[in-house]
Amino acid sequence: MTVTWEDLGWERVAAGVGRCRLPVWDCTAGLVAGAGAVLLIDAGSSLAEGAKLRAQARSLTGHRVTHLALTHPHFDHVFGAAAVTDAEVFGAVGVDAVLTRVRDREELRADAVRHGLAAPTAQEAAERLTPPGHLVSGEWTLDLGGGRQVLLANVGPGHTAHDLAVLVPGDPEVVFCGDLVEESGEPQAGPDAVPSHWPAALDRLLALGGEDALYVPGHGAVVDAAFVRAQRDALAARFGVSW
C-alpha cells in the first residue's frame, strides 16, 4: 500500500515538497524529493526524532535522505542531525563553530534541558553534534535530479547569526524560513539573535520567494508574503530598527 504524506502526519505543500510540525515545540521539518535524492530541512530535537524523520522520508520518497539543511543552530532544529546518517549536511557559514565549540554545545544542551528535554537525551545529542560538511556564504544550488533544483541561501543574520533559508522553485514556489518567521507565536529573540539585521533578512526572504510563494515558518502554519512583510514591520518596530 502506498504511504501518503497525510498517513505519516506530514502536510504536502507542493509537488514533492512537504513539511511536518513536530510535537512539543511545534518545530517544522521539511522534505524535498527529487529523482533518487532527498533533502531534509532540519532534524528535530533529539536523535530519536532525527531517526524518525529519516525513516519517514524513506517511506514517503522510496529513497534515503541524501542532503540535510540546518536552518540555524538551535537544539530543536539540530539535535537530531547525527541520526540522519550518510547525508551531506549544509549550514550557514559560522554554524560549524557553534556546533563544535565546547561552550556553545554546553549552552545548547542546557537550553534544551531548560525547555524540558530530558537531560540524558540532551547530553547524548550534544555530544554527537558534528559541523556541516558544506558551509553556505551566499547561495548554493542543489541538484536533486529529475529537474528538481533547490536553492540554499544564507539570508541572516537575524534570528541567529547563522540563518539559512531554502527556496524550492515550482508552482507555487516554497520558502523554508527557519525561525526567521514564526506563525504560532511572537518570533523569539534569544541572546544569539541579531535584531538590527532581522528585518533586512526578511526582505531577503521576500526577494527569494516573491509575492506568490508559500513561506514555511520554523514554528506554525504556512503563511504568505503579506504575513512575512507584516512580521518584518513588527520586528522593526519592536527593536527600533530602520532600514
Produce the secondary structure layout.
Elements lengths: L10 E4 L2 E5 L6 E6 L4 E4 L5 H15 L5 E3 L5 H4 L9 E5 L2 H6 L1 H13 L4 H9 L6 E3 L2 E7 L2 E7 L9 E5 L5 E9 L15 H12 L4 E6 L5 H15 L4
Parallel strand pairs: 4-5, 5-6, 6-7, 11-12
Antiparallel strand pairs: 1-2, 2-3, 3-4, 8-9, 9-10, 10-11
Helix pairs in contact: 4-5, 6-7
Structure write-up:
A seven-stranded mixed sheet has the order 1-2-3-4-5-6-7, covered by helices on one side. It has a five-stranded mixed sheet with strand order 8-9-10-11-12, with helices on one face. With 243 residues, the protein is α/β, with parallel strands linked by helices. It has one domain: Ribonuclease Z/Hydroxyacylglutathione hydrolase-like (Metallo-beta-lactamase, Chain A), CATH 3.60.15.10. The radius of gyration is 17 Å and the shape is globular. It is built from seven helices and twelve strands. InterPro entries: Metallo-B-lactamas (IPR001279), NDM-1-like (IPR050855), RibonucZ/Hydroxyglut_hydro (IPR036866). This is MBL fold metallo-hydrolase.
Instruction: Report, as a whole number of angstroms, the end-to-end distance.
Output: 53 Å
What's the overall geometry? globular
Q: How do the strands line up in the largest sheet?
A: 1-2-3-4-5-6-7
Report the CATH architecture.
Answer: 4-Layer Sandwich
**SSE string, helix = H, strand = E?**
EEEEHEHEHHHEEEEEHEH
- Strand proportion, as a percent range, falls in 25-35%
Q: How would you sum up the major sheet? A: 7 strands, mixed
Radius of gyration based on Cα positions: 17 Å
Mean pLDDT: 96
Q: Given the helix and strand composition, which structural class is it?
A: alpha/beta
CATH class: Alpha Beta
CATH superfamily: Ribonuclease Z/Hydroxyacylglutathione hydrolase-like
At CATH level 3, the topology is: Metallo-beta-lactamase, Chain A
Organism: Streptomyces cahuitamycinicus
Pfam families: Lactamase_B
GO molecular function: hydrolase activity
Keywords: Hydrolase
